[in-house]
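Field log, afternoon session.

UNIT: design team B
ACTIVITY: writing a sequence onto a fixed backbone
BACKBONE:
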């Protein structure tokens, strides 16, 4: 090196005030960019949580509607009159509530954990099986040679009274944990 050229650190030491201003400006720019990204993340996260609550509420509402229509069908099957027009209306109600329920099951799955998804799929499967078992009862009740296990109405009642509430409670507990609610 020639005797006239200075090392980079010597230049910095001689011009320390200008160097401090430049470093402060660079630090300010980096801090601003990081804060902007963090705020963007916070907004996204809060929007996701807000949408999750909305979808969970819609799921619960459709679940209640669907199970109430299934219970009406079961009650009419066990204790009511067996007129075709009554059952046709009940089947229409079940079909409409089932479509809404399945739609809400699909959308709520976008916002929840894998374990909750499995629980919701299990709830959907049980509700579908309940509907099929009640329909099967109507098909085989007048049959001359029904299968051995055609009358599952007691099993259906047990699923309504025990299995479904347990699964719903599992989802509720998981959601409480995700929102840190005790």
């Amino acid at each position: 090196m020639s005797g006239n050229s200075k090392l980079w650190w010597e230049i910095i030491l001689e011009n320390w005030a200008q160097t401090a201003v430049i470093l402060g400006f660079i630090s300010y720019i980096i801090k601003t960019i990081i804060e902007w990204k963090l705020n963007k993340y916070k907004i996204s996260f809060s929007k996701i949580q807000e949408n999750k609550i909305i979808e969970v509420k819609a799921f619960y509402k459709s679940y209640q509607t669907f199970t109430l229509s299934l219970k009406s069908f079961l009650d009419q099957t066990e204790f009511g009159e067996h007129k075709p027009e009554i059952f046709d209306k009940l089947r229409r109600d079940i079909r409409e509530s089932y479509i809404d329920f399945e739609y809400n099951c699909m959308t709520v799955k976008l916002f929840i954990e894998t374990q909750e998804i499995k629980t919701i799929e299990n709830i959907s499967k049980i509700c579908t099986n309940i509907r099929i078992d009640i329909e099967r009862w109507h098909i085989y009740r007048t049959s001359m040679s029904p299968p051995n296990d055609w009358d599952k109405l007691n099993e259906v009642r047990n699923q309504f009274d025990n299995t479904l509430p347990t699964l719903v409670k599992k989802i509720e507990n998981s959601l409480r944990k995700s929102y840190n609610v005790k």
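LOG NOTE: The chain has one domain: 17-178.
NEXT ACTIVITY: expression trials, pending approval
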